[in-house]
Amino acid sequence: MPQPLQNANLLKTLPLQIADLLAEQIADGQWAPGDRLRETELASTYGVSRATVREALRLLEIRGLATIRPQRGACVTQLSAKEILDLYAVRAAMVSTASRLAAERCTPAEADILKGRLRLLADNIGEPAEYTRHSRELVEYIASLADNAILASYASDIAKQIGRYVRISLATLERRERSLRAWEETIQAITTHEPERAAACHYRLAVQNRDAVLEELSRTGQA
């Protein structure tokens, strides 16, 4: 659960700092869909006023990560199957574009970093939480290689909205092994400067993750 603010970024307001921390925790699965986000508890945890927490929750609502209900407070947003489909459609388009641009721009030094991050994925194939985290960081790094700040920002926001669902898509070893093979193809295409192949590989990976999420939610009666 949340920890008190440390090394606060003075360029950010307190509500924004808290919103960013909660967004990361939601993406990492520390808060489940439907969990209550209680103002009093969060204010005590972070040592701030309830008004500050209230503003942070409004920022989370704008990002699609929290739902604020009149007289009932805030909770972590629980997406419908249609909303998951819509988010993954946007995500697939974004990551494929990012990989295409990365393949066009990738330097030898950046290629080495990509290969190193791919090795981290392989090394953590048996650890669902770590594999998921490294996968998300790899997506963010590829977005940074695209040299498009707007694309990187939107990709990061969507990654946080679906982060908890990505964990579902990678819950089994079989799914992580399939994911790793797709990542290997994507990274190879980027590092060998094949833009269209890189875009197609990353698009397929996003669709593969989407299908795994919907399959699991359907199996458990959540979709």
Automatic annotation (TrEMBL):
Keywords: DNA-binding, Transcription, Transcription regulation. The keyword Transcription regulation applies. Residues 12-79 form the HTH gntR-type domain. Pfam families: FCD (PF07729), GntR (PF00392). GO terms for molecular function: DNA binding; DNA-binding transcription factor activity. PANTHER family: TRANSCRIPTIONAL REGULATOR, GNTR FAMILY, TRANSCRIPTIONAL REGULATORY PROTEIN. This is HTH gntR-type domain-containing protein. The lineage of its organism: Bacteria, Pseudomonadati, Pseudomonadota, Betaproteobacteria, Burkholderiales.
